[in-house]
Sequence to fold (286 residues):
Amino acid sequence: MKNILEVSGLNKSYKDFSLSDVNFTIPEGCIAGYIGVNGAGKTTTLRSILGLTKKTSGSIKLFGLEMERHEHELKNRIGIVLDDGCFYDELTMSEMKNIIAPAYTSWSEQDYMNYLSRFSLNPKQKISTLSKGMRIKFALALALSHKAELLIMDEPTSGLDPLIRSQLLDILTDYMNEGGKGVLFSTHITSDLDKIADTIIMINNGKIVFQEVKDALLDSFRIVKGDTKALNEDTRKLFLSLTETQFGFTGITNHTLEVQNCMPNIVIEKSTIEDIMLANINGGKE
Ligand SMILES: Nc1ncnc2c1ncn2[C@@H]1O[C@H](COP(=O)(O)OP(=O)(O)OP(=O)(O)O)[C@@H](O)[C@H]1O
Fold:
């Protein structure tokens, strides 16, 4: 399978924060969820990929081509939805579109009009009067109207109501069904990824913690509940994170079989992506 995006050895240093040796790939046909808590380095990664932030070192390849050497051609093939929007507030959506569309060689006015209608957006409305959800829909309409093969979206669902979030997820599903596409979607609302992501990439404190196929990831971690008497020096080591109260313990493990074998009277439940993300931060074990 071809890789749509390859990030290798990406480093970026600010005064108080560094992205350190960030590596991940997005193969064709993959929706990758890029997760991490506030300040983990998601936006810095996405902006570095897009050349909006100057990286310290590393290689970004899109469709097998180096971003630095083929920036103009490659940007034509990417749809971008950033949380700050980068729009001129005093313009209408139609005027803003007239500035953006000529930058793309494969702009489709028909697709654009279809998306505006699907999103119930009026092209004559001023950008300053758009709600947050409307701004994101407008950014998405622009991103999807030039036959982009990779969509890069920074927190597209944050601040959106459940109805708009669910519409966005439907649109991404339709987009992927066209074939040959990829999506990199940063978020801390991990429940959206339960529905649509194929791969989960987690970043914490500027470092990649894991890149895993979502189903395999969800399969490998389990929540375990039981009496604290079952905890001892050895069994504690089987957990990434543990919470203990007077009523018992709750832990998250990726050693489920061992836990089952050596801990009696426990309850084992499935974990969510959020449980796994938090365990990888709070547990601190690698
Ligand atoms: N231009 C900058 N100059 C200095 N530090 C910066 C700059 N941009 C970001 N940072 C710092 O880099 C760190 C990572 O920020 P970043 O925006 O990448 O995180 P994030 O994971 O996207 O967080 P959030 O979910 O809150 O958007 C933060 O500590 C932030 O303060």
Notes: Residues 14-15, 17, 36, 38-44, 188 surround adenosine-5'-triphosphate (CB under 6 Å). The chain has a mean pLDDT of 90. The longest strand covers residues 3-13.
